[in-house]
Specification:
- The chain contains seven helices and four strands; from the N terminus they run αααβααβββαα.
- With about 200 residues, the chain is α+β, with helices and mostly antiparallel strands.
- The protein has two domains: about 90 residues, no CATH class; about 80 residues, 2-Layer Sandwich (hypothetical protein PF0899 fold).
- Strands 2-1-3-4 form a four-stranded mixed β-sheet.
- Strand 3 and strand 4 form a beta hairpin.
- The termini are far apart.
């Protein structure tokens, strides 16, 4: 094994360790957010259910069905609002990521969305200014036989994330688009955690 191979192996090992640490820290943050949201959600849901039940008790048998329907709908509205608040907070927490955490996330997102062929990755000016050295090479080393990605020289007007352009195919990997695309799955996952 040459010295270059040893250096490469050491870098790969450090990268794996960094990724595992970032994922572990992110999971802890998510679990804390879920625990806080569960507590707040249960408190708010209890208040709403209690108020709606008091209203339903005052109504006669004919209006009871209507009151229960109102309660159920209001509960779903609040539940949806809580889920939206949690997802918004998660999105905003990306601003607190270190450069390393952020670009590890971008790398993972790129790995999931890379297409066969030659593509160009476009980013905003801020991300381009703090891009780690060798980032494109890191991406290209993952799929050398099927894909090649180069960084666009000009910044694009996006908030964060990136756009992959393959000429006839454009993959929107802005974080807002990723969150929006996965909104139902995120809400389902959070609902199971908070309201099961």
């Amino acid at each position: 094994m040459t010295g270059l191979d040893k250096i490469k192996e050491k870098i790969e090992e450090q990268s794996r360790e960094s990724c595992e640490k970032i994922f572990a820290e992110t999971n802890l943050k998510i679990k804390r957010m879920i625990a806080e949201a569960r507590e707040e959600g249960n408190r708010r849901a209890s208040e709403i259910v209690g108020a709606a039940q008091a209203q339903a008790d005052k109504q006669n048998a004919v209006s009871k069905s209507t009151a229960e329907s109102i309660t159920r709908n209001r509960y779903l509205e609040i539940r949806n609002a809580i889920l939206n608040d949690i997802i918004s907070a998660a999105y905003l927490s990306i601003d607190n990521f270190s450069d390393e955490e952020y670009f590890d996330m971008i790398f993972s997102l790129c790995k999931k969305n890379i297409q066969p062929g030659e593509g160009v990755m476009y980013m905003n000016g801020y991300d381009l200014s703090r891009l780690p050295a060798g980032f494109a090479e890191r991406i290209n080393s993952e799929f050398p036989e099927v894909s090649s990605v180069k960084l666009g020289e000009k910044a694009v007007d996006i908030e964060n994330g990136f756009i992959l352009d393959y000429g006839d195919i454009t993959v929107n990997c802005t974080l807002r688009a990723v969150f929006d695309e996965n909104m139902d799955a995120l809400k389902d996952m959070l609902s199971k955690e908070l309201f099961s």
